[in-house]
Amino acid sequence: MSIAGRIASTVRADIRELTAYPVAHAEGCIKLDAMECPYELPEAVREDIARSVRDTPLNRYPAADLSALKGQIKTAFGVPDAADVLFGNGSDELIHLVVQACCNPGDTVLSPWPSFVYFDMAARFDHARFIGVPLTEDLALDLPAMLAAIREHQPKVVFLAVPNNPTGGLWPDEAILAIIAAAPGLVVLDEAYQPFAGSTWMPRVLDASNVVVMRTVSKIGLAGLRFGYLAGHPAWVAEFDKVRPPYNLDVLTQATLSAVLRHKAVLDEQAARLRADREPLAAALAQLPGVRVFPSAGNFVLARFSGKLDGNAVHLALKTRKILIRNFSNAHPLLANCLRISVGTPAENAALLSALQEILSA
Ligand code: PMP
Fold first, then answer.
1. Does residue 191 have its Cβ closer than 6 Å to ligand 1?
2. Where is each Aminotransferase class I/classII large domain found (predicted)?
3. Looking at residues 79-87, what average pLDDT do you find?
4. Which position among 7, 135, 220, 288 has the lowest Cβ density within 10 Å, counted as fewest Cβ atoms?
């Protein structure tokens, strides 16, 4: 039998129809497409990492006892003492572990939509049913629709990205509380962009019996490391720990993280810089002809292009000029002609704005 025939009769049909998570080739480009931090770590931090990594034995599996790193994470990121944390190879892995642990085939995973695409993907991988509850035309949370969908579909897991990706919206506390109260299963508050938002659910993570908070270090300068953590009641964490692949957090990541956290102020300072640079970027984008900018609490802004050129054309014109941003024009009707732009360095932001001025006035 040919390989194609063997695959057709072996790999799940729904998997064969998927496309792999898209990652753009970025060599030589100004990279504003993935909400990375544009700043590299300072020399002193890199020296500390180098020492830490050099002294890490590679011949043994990672140790079973992660309590030292857990302590460091809890202190650095304000996790309540009584909560436990689970580590993931990026928070992508944690999303997957939660769905795996909670969902039988056909169970529902629910999220406002559009939101982070991996909520949907992880649900599909595990034969769960994904329900995306549409945002309003203004890309705000539709709380009545969320509550009605929760009543109707009784989801095992509700994912709430706060702030939301790709729209940037920060859902109001009262709406989050209402969703937590209505949800029959678990509510995962995905705070990937929390460092740019200024509010967090973390101190309240133990207040309700059905909440965990997920975070990542990807957006605050460490996207290359692949590290995320989930904080919650130790009983929830213990269940998710059962489906965690053995040794998912390698020793080099642990050593690097431990060294970087000795310089946590550097990460905070970088995040503060990006947060401060977001508003001038958003304001300058909003001045361009035919551009609507949606309010953002993340390190990115979503803009709709409805002038002479549509979203696809603007995206392509920027790509030709070696500026990469993320095109959502064809992703969902609510995102028609929408492009997502990560906040870069001041020089990168200026280059983007002058390219857009040129493109839109041509
Ligand atoms: N959650 C949200 C809302 C995200 O936007 C992303 C990254 N795009 C992630 C989680 C995944 O982050 P990580 O790099 O830790 O896998």
1. no
2. 29-356
3. 98
4. 7
Rg of the chain in Å (alpha carbons):
21
Q: Both 178 and 320 in a single domain?
A: no
Neighbours of 248 (CB within 10 A): 17
End position of a domain, from candidates 203, 231, 263: 263
Q: Average pLDDT for residues 140-169, to the nearest whole number?
A: 98
From the CA of 216, give the closest atom in ligand 1: 15
For 231-261, what is each residue's pLDDT tens digit?
999 999 999 999 999 999 999 999 999 999 9
End-to-end C-alpha distance for the chain, whole angstroms: 55
The model carries a pTM of 0.96
Say whether both 116 and 259 belong to one domain.
yes
Non-local CB neighbours of 21 within 8 Å, separated by 6+ positions: 117, 118, 121
- Interval 44-70 mean pLDDT: 96
- Asked casually if ipTM beats, i.e. exceeds, 0.95, the reply is yes
Is the shortest distance between the CB of 254 and ligand 1 below 6 Å?
Answer: no
Same domain, residue pair 239 and 321: no
Are residues 156 and 259 located together in one domain of the fold? yes
- For position 288, what pLDDT does the model report? 96
CA 92 / ligand 1 centre spacing (Å): 6
Can you give the pLDDT at residue 190?
98
> Which atom of ligand 1 is the closest one to the Cα of 92?
16
User: Does the pLDDT of residue 22 top 90, yes or no?
Assistant: no
pLDDT at 39: 97
The CA distance from 324 to 280, in Å, is 20
Of 263, 282, 305, which marks where a domain is finished? 263
Task: Report how far ligand 1's centroid is from the alpha carbon of 91 (Å).
Answer: 6
On whether both 85 and 28 belong to a single domain, the answer is no
- Provide the residue range defining the domain that includes 327: 3-41+266-361
Distance CA 198, CA 206 (A): 20
Do 59 and 202 reside in the same domain of the chain? yes
| Residue 33 domain flag | yes
CATH number reported for the structural domain that contains residue 189 in this entry: 3.40.640.10
pLDDT of residue 198: 87
Query: Which phi-psi region, left, alpha or beta, contains residue 160 (left: φ > 0; alpha: ψ -120 to 50)?
Result: beta
